[in-house]
UniProtKB/TrEMBL annotation:
<dbReference type="Pfam" id="PF06835">
    <property type="entry name" value="LptC"/>
</dbReference>
<keyword id="KW-0997">Cell inner membrane</keyword>
<keyword id="KW-0472">Membrane</keyword>
<dbReference type="InterPro" id="IPR052363">
    <property type="entry name" value="LPS_export_LptC"/>
</dbReference>
<keyword id="KW-1003">Cell membrane</keyword>
<keyword id="KW-1133">Transmembrane helix</keyword>
<dbReference type="InterPro" id="IPR026265">
    <property type="entry name" value="LptC"/>
</dbReference>
<protein>
    <submittedName>
        <fullName>LPS export ABC transporter periplasmic protein LptC</fullName>
    </submittedName>
</protein>
<feature type="transmembrane region" description="Helical">
    <location>
        <begin position="21"/>
        <end position="41"/>
    </location>
</feature>
<dbReference type="InterPro" id="IPR010664">
    <property type="entry name" value="LipoPS_assembly_LptC-rel"/>
</dbReference>
<keyword id="KW-0812">Transmembrane</keyword>
Length: 209
């Protein structure tokens, strides 16, 4: 026995089926949109958290005003002391920034040098001090060496090796003589100073006999 639906009834059934498919498609689209929005929100949140963590990680972990610390040598004796108005340490690269630094050598084998500047950057891992702005180096004289004064705008100090170096213009006073040049390497251990280029030496006038 075969049941034949009237045309109007068949049309009604087809419309209901089509409506259900459209409704199902709309529901699936809504689910996908909701999932996509949730995933995008999670991605943005994670990115913001990562950026915040990165920013916080580069923030200073400690700040010290009117500080002073001593660097000890392998023999347990002090090598040099660094002081200043403020020290700001950043943990990411283990670097400290110093306002109005004063670096003083503490060795007894050689004349003690005192170095000042507007600011400094201390690379703790490399035992290196970068002096920046109005750098002034003073070393008193003794029985075997003359007083030494060096002025420049930037200088790298390697305290463990007792080395000073710069590629900036330098004015140096050694005893009564004035030496000007560009680029310098000074070794306090050997009492030697080397100017890289454009050197000029001005000697004081001879005293009348």
């Amino acid at each position: 026995m075969r049941l034949t639906l009237p045309d109007t009834m068949a049309t009604y059934v087809n419309k209901r089926t089509a409506h259900r498919w459209r409704l199902l498609a709309v529901m699936l689209l809504g689910v996908f949109c909701a999932f996509g929005s949730f995933w995008l929100l999670q991605l943005v949140t994670q990115s913001n958290q990562g950026a915040q963590l990165g920013a916080r990680g580069n923030e200073p972990d400690y700040i010290v005003d009117n500080f002073s610390f001593v660097r000890m040598g392998p023999n347990g004796k002090p090598r040099y002391v660094v002081s200043g108005n403020r020290l700001t340490h950043r943990p990411v690269d283990d670097v400290s920034f110093v306002d109005k630094p004063v670096v003083q050598g503490m060795t007894v084998e050689h004349p003690r040098m005192t170095m000042t500047a507007d600011r400094a950057r201390i690379l703790h891992g490399q035992n290196q001090v970068d002096l920046i702005g109005n750098v002034d180096v003073e070393r008193p004289g003794n029985a075997t060496s003359q007083p030494l004064s060096i002025k420049t705008e930037q200088m790298t100090v390697l305290p463990d090796e007792e080395l000073l170096k710069t590629d900036k213009p330098v004015e140096m006073k050694l005893g009564g003589a004035i030496v000007r040049g560009t680029g310098m390497l000074a070794n306090n251990a050997t009492q030697q100073v080397h100017l890289a280029k454009q050197g000029q030496i001005i000697y004081p006038p001879r005293a009348n006999r």
